[in-house]
Amino acid sequence: MTHIDAGAELDPVHPVPLPAPGRALGLTAAEVAERVARGEVNDVPVRSSRSTADIVRANVFTRFNAIIGVLWLIMLFVAPFQDSLFGYVILANTGIGIIQEWRAKKTLDSLAVIGEARPTVRRDGVAAQVATSEIVLGDLIEIGPGDKIVVDGACVETDSLEVDESLLTGEADPVVKQPGDQVMSGSFVVAGGGAFTAARVGREAYAAQLAEEASRFTLVHSELRSGISTILKYVTWMMIPTAIGLIISQLVVKENAFKDSVARTVGGIVPMVPEGLVLLTSVAFAIGVIRLGRQQCLVQELPAIEGLARVDTVCLDKTGTLTEGGMDVTELRPLDGADESYVRKVLGALGESDPRPNASLQAIIDAYPDGDDWRCTESLPFSSARKYSGATFSEGTGESSTWLLGAPDVLLADGDPALAETERLNEEGLRVLLLARAARDLDAPDVVHGARPTALVVLEQRLRPDAADTLRYFDEQNVRAKVISGDNAISVGAVAGKLGLNGEVVDARRLPAERHAMADALDAGTVFGRVSPQQKRDMVGAMQSKGHTVAMTGDGVNDVLALKDADIGVSMGSGSEATRAVAQIVLLNNSFATLPSVVAEGRRVIGNITRVATLFLVKTVYSVLLAILVVCWQVEYPFLPRHLTLLSTLTIGVPAFFLALAPNKERAKPDFVGRVMRYAIPGGVVAALATFTTYLIARHYYTGPGSLDAETSAATLTLFLISMWVLAIIARPYTWWRLCLVASMGVAFLVVLVVPRLQEFFALKLVGAAMPWLAVGIAAVAAVALEFLWRRADRRLPG
């Protein structure tokens, strides 16, 4: 509804009313064009993702790519082509990473346009929405509840305007603005309305980067990424001394041919590098973003996918989350003999007095059209902090009256008879507003005092059809749901009960202020009503203080502070600009039922990356240990780079790619680093000891020319079989495609062993029968040891 000031004139061409005399018209089209030509435009680049150059740089210029790149260049000069295959594998992997993240970037960029802020700008006296980047210096920007202030400026018009600057100053209390007061980008309107002139645009604006940072696709802290970084740090520390020892051993002590020694040295160093681990983690995240994007879910920060999978408490705002935005007036109950037709006129006038009605007032507007003979002289917009709105009218009879509309338990004194009736209606899940006639001026600080109740307005909220199933899903996953609302506690409890969410109902005004005591009360309760915006923030902090990982959903400006502080903030796409700016996840389709998909995607990423990390780090552990054993025994390193390239491709590279992207519904488990290393260390130790045992026996078994190739082939067979068994364990529980994946890798290795050209290419030829069968036997013993050690690790790890 457009609010038309008294005396406003209507343009016969435009449906938008022209302002009354004395009201600012804004810039003219010529002035806008002139400023655009001068470059006085709000040109801050708001991106939802990293640039293409950043993606390429991040995937190419890594520590491990540098190590592998140097070793690859060396091998190109000193060894046959097949010994430098590992370098081409790295090129392919890096290319896949760049393509996948670029696809994710395109998805995010297209989705971000849907949720982009479009401020209302007044030009030539006509209000119109424009893109943020189209604002020019001097533009007159209209603002109302929930609007984000996108540039700095000075207020020109104010109507009970309250601005929350907490994202800039840390102060939670809204600031009342008067004409001439400054407003800053990054703040948002919580009540009232007005207009301001853009004084600083683009990069000159104070906190101009805030909106960009809040909505950017970022690689921020996550347990998964920090865990992988920790692992890679330890791997680097192990690699350096081991590689130095191997170089000295192969080049100096054994006095072998230089090129062969270099090849075997590189063959020992390359498999120590878990080069694909970081890549596959990024790919898994990126594909998760793409999958969720197809469901109209905008993931503004990558680790939010992971974070929601780790959440154990989800806080739900009732309005807009459990219920749809709209409401319907079901009943009007006049009090103390009030005339119903007169009450209808009051309600119609109140609806007309607010240019930006909330859902409750919109229902009243739909039910009670405004009469032409009432004129609003002063208005007090609704604020979630005070929980009522009001207006002063000049009635058609010339009489002046002031009215308040809001929560009965706020406007009425304790013990008032109307409260009992209100409570009964709330128990039925209905929302009740009280219309009261004020005895004091609207701007009086105690305007509520002495107000005379006139009527109860009964509204029915529309439940989201998917809310019950979503709440049931969270219950099945042992995720506690807490309903936190500014509405009456009993009414909220009734709505939650209709959706199958039962538990203690608490009036938040009776919650203890002390954090520890509040946390205990929150653990005991399920539904909380009459929660103030600051209290929502305190409640999130109290739950976090007890070790809970908290997700907060919401769509209104009263949810912003809590969304910002929660571990994961989830905003509805139809929510205010402020909520969309601070949330990590935006449900553009406004469907609460999308959340299980986000949880499932997070579990897929966490579970699969744990599998993949184990595969990569088993290889790192056995490579480091093999190098140490070679240095201690003063023997040639058993493998050339081509052997380990073949093994890595068949037992890690190809399987890891499929496993990292496979469906996975396992619950996210804590202690990522400990869990991975408790599997990788015993697996790597068993593989190294068994392989080196086969190698030492083969050195005594084979003699004469070509013996080193035969020894290498026997050791390769043992290592491949053990690596295949590791893959077979990691691939559990089996499905048809996982069995096919494992079997196809085994068949591929068998093809290499039986095809003469491939035998020659990979320098693999099993000599005789006794030694190959002994290699198989050693691998079988190692497989039994792996089963025992990993099952023991399963019992010791937390569920």
Cross-sheet strand order for the largest sheet: 8-21-20-19-9-16-18-17
What is the count of β-strands? 21
Percentage of residues in strands: 15-25%
Instruction: State the oligomer.
Output: single chain
Distance between the termini: 55 Å
Count of helical regions: 27
Structural class from helices and strands?
A: alpha/beta
**What is the averaged pLDDT score?**
82
- The radius of gyration computed from the alpha-carbon positions, rounded to a whole number of angstroms, is 34 Å
Shape: elongated
Percent of residues in helices comes to 40-55%
Let me know the largest β-sheet: 8 strands, mixed
Unreliable stretches (pLDDT < 50, length at least 5) are 1-22, 210-220
Task: Give a nutshell description of this structure.
Residues 120-213 form the P-type ATPase A domain. This protein is of the alpha/beta class. Helix content is 51%, strand content 16%.
